[in-house]
Amino acid sequence: MQKYFYTENNIKVPAVTTKQMMEIDRIAMEETGPNLYQMMENAGRNLAITIMEMVAEVIDPSIVILGGTGGNGGGGICAARHLLNRNYNVTLAITDGTKLNDVPKKQFEVYINTGGKIVENLDEIKADIIVDAIIGYSLTDSPKRRAMQFIEWANKQTAKKISLDVPSGIDATSGENYGEYFHTDSTLTLALPKTGLTEEKCGKLLLGDIGIPKVVYEKISIEYRSPFKNRFVVELNYK
Description:
alpha/beta; single chain; 19% strand; 7 helices; ten-stranded mixed β-sheet; Rossmann fold; mRNA binding; isomerase; EC 5.1.99.6; 34% helix; 10 strands; NAD(P)H-hydrate epimerase; globular
């Protein structure tokens, strides 16, 4: 049975499974565009905008972005660069900078060339907001080693928290968690919401436009009406 979320204007937004989202990404990258770098850039910019709105009332906020080595991490790195370009106090931590995939690696290089900071010891920093860009929608097992350390550290902090796409540690399709997961206040999910997103585990739910055209959804028989109108990020209701 198809699951839906709804915008404030009652536009019905279909939810997708991990398998469906992987196919959407494949079609976009191999057949129609946009390519992965473009989608990652769109995701990162939307995340940066959302973070700026979250800290609007905080004087000189300290922003900590926790990134993994895949596409989700690349979006987080991109957001860090956009925030740095706007003179925000942003610090990036990566689970393993030596294992970044090709496109996230390029984002990382640009961030470093911009003068971005990297932190190894999270206990040394204070955070007003913590950003979870560790794993994303592809989780199939419990987070490993450094990723789990990031999650455990974040869950002990009192800072505001936001997850990119799916809270790390949550199965995007089922909503189940494999042990510890990132306890977030809000989630910026990308392109379409995932079937496993719940209010209990994801908090306030936002949807970010990463530029995927309607024709991509039509290719896998998803009935799609753009929920974005004149915006790139919209809030979704769970029912």
